[in-house]
Write a structure and sequence with these properties.
Helix content: 55-70%
Largest sheet: none
Number of helices: 18
Oligomer: single chain
Number of domains: 2
Distance between the termini: 17 Å
Radius of gyration: 23 Å
Structural class: mainly alpha
Length: about 450
């Protein structure tokens, strides 16, 4: 079930109505929220619902009982990482190991199991680990019970692609959601509309009209390679930030606030600032639960550089079981080390970030190197893409350099003045967006992570 389908909007309408009908009863509300989230997740693949439930149970035990027992806490975190490692990385490492052994003649058989990756596992496993570690850091804090842990880990607006939310951020709203006022309803409507525009109009058209065709056939020259690279930079921003906008907007309608996940990432003049605007909740997570525990910048410059490389390399691998993601993460790590406290300017940072999206997008290292070589190859006389697609690409880039707090709430205030008329206007606008979108249902890029 994808946010950008009529099926989801019908599901949310029914869920929204019943949710607020039982909102005054804490137990019923939490139970219904969990049941609705389980239903949402089961619509993807019901077989993995048991895996989500297992992660919930392990997280609950680790946070409630492991905060005073290190062995139990470490065991629960190991189980969560083991689940993530098996489903996401087993086939990758089994293939690489078999290839290595085949070169030496020691082992010829493959252990490849064709493991199916459960949607959202990277996100809810990280949230489970954060709940366990936060409980250990503050053992006297009020820890969620089993039902609250289930509602937290399975909360469907952000279950499959973030933002990565911590228990202490989400739990107050789960326990006592606020009743959205007209301005908040208007803001939710604005976020939902913008999320749909980013994904269905900008990202999907860029994918189908520029990025995917050029990657499939191979660029004819440098101009086409650069066009595809810049278009992909706009596509992945609109695709992922569009999902985040939708997640925040739908959550607001339920009286729950989610943290900001993007803030003008392509308008930054340093690589440090880029990571303060791109996938903000992942950046916070790897900083607080990986970089700082490794020693952060407290142990000298050499150790700081090593910690950054380890952190960013693992952050790259978190995105997928492929050497291309590791290369992408390590490259960003090297840039963070080499350009500390240096502001290169918006354009140079954007161009380097765009080049690094090539291995991120490539199916393998060989394809990435071939595409990168075309960026510095001979110019070509490529056929120009349709003008409306170029306009959409520029629109996506403008959105990616616009701060989140730029002219905040203007549309929201307008929508909040006349709720009934505004609701009709939002419905009509959503219908127009669906009508203008290219045919088919394209999954969000980050669903594969």
């Amino acid at each position: 079930m994808i946010f950008t389908t009529l099926e989801f909007f019908l599901f949310f309408l029914v869920f929204f109505t019943i949710y607020w009908a039982v909102a005054s009863q804490h137990l019923m509300r939490m139970g219904f929220l969990t049941l609705g989230s389980f239903t949402f997740y089961a619509a993807w693949d019901y077989r993995f619902l048991a895996l989500l439930m297992l992660a919930i149970m392990v997280t609950f035990i680790g946070s409630k009982y492991g905060r005073h027992a290190q062995w139990l806490r470490v065991g629960c975190i190991t189980i969560l990482l083991g689940l993530l490692g098996f489903f996401k990385y087993f086939d990758f490492f089994a293939f690489e190991l078999a290839r290595l052994f085949s070169l030496t003649g020691l082992f010829q058989d493959s252990l490849f199991l064709n493991v199916v990756l459960p949607v959202g596992i990277s996100f809810y496993i990280f949230q489970g680990i954060s709940q366990i570690m936060d409980a250990a850091r503050d053992p006297s804090s009020d820890q969620p019970n089993l039902l609250e842990t289930a509602a937290y880990l399975s909360f469907f607006p952000q279950l499959v692609a973030g933002p990565i939310v911590r228990a202490h951020e989400l739990m107050p709203y789960l326990r006592q959601p606020f009743m959205p006022d007209p301005n908040q309803l208007g803001w939710a409507g604005q976020l939902i509309i913008m999320g749909l525009i980013k994904k269905l109009i900008i990202a999907n058209y860029l994918a189908t009209q520029i990025v995917d065709p050029i990657w499939a056939a191979g660029p004819n020259g440098a101009l086409e390679a650069w066009l595809a690279s810049i278009a992909y930079a706009a596509q992945i921003f609109c695709d992922f930030s569009g999902y985040s906008d939708l997640a925040v907007g739908f959550s607001l309608l339920l009286g729950i606030k989610l943290p900001q996940n993007f803030n003008a990432p392509y308008g930054r003049s340093s690589f440090q600032d880029f990571w303060k605007g791109w996938h903000i909740t992942l950046s916070r997570w790897i900083r607080d639960y990986l970089y700082i525990p490794l020693g952060g910048n407290r142990l000298g410059e050499a150790r700081r550089a090593l910690n950054l490389l380890i952190t960013m390399g693992l952050a790259g691998l978190w995105h997928g079981a492929n050497w291309t993601f590791m290369i992408w993460g390590l490259a960003h790590g090297l840039l963070l080390v080499a350009t500390r406290n240096i502001r290169l300017g918006v354009v140079p940072v954007f161009l380097v970030v765009t080049i690094l999206w090539v291995p991120f997008r490539a199916p393998d290292v060989h394809a990435a190197l071939q595409f990168l070589s075309m960026l510095v190859g001979p110019m070509d006389n490529m056929p120009g893409p349709p003008i409306h697609v170029i306009i959409l690409m520029l629109w996506g880039l403008v959105l990616a350099i616009t701060p989140q707090d730029f002219a905040p709430g203007r549309v929201a205030r307008f929508l909040g003045r006349t709720p009934m008329i505004s609701a009709m206007l939002v419905v009509v606008t959503i219908w127009v967006i669906f009508a203008l979108a290219p045919p088919g249902v394209a999954p969000f890029i980050y669903f594969q992570f």
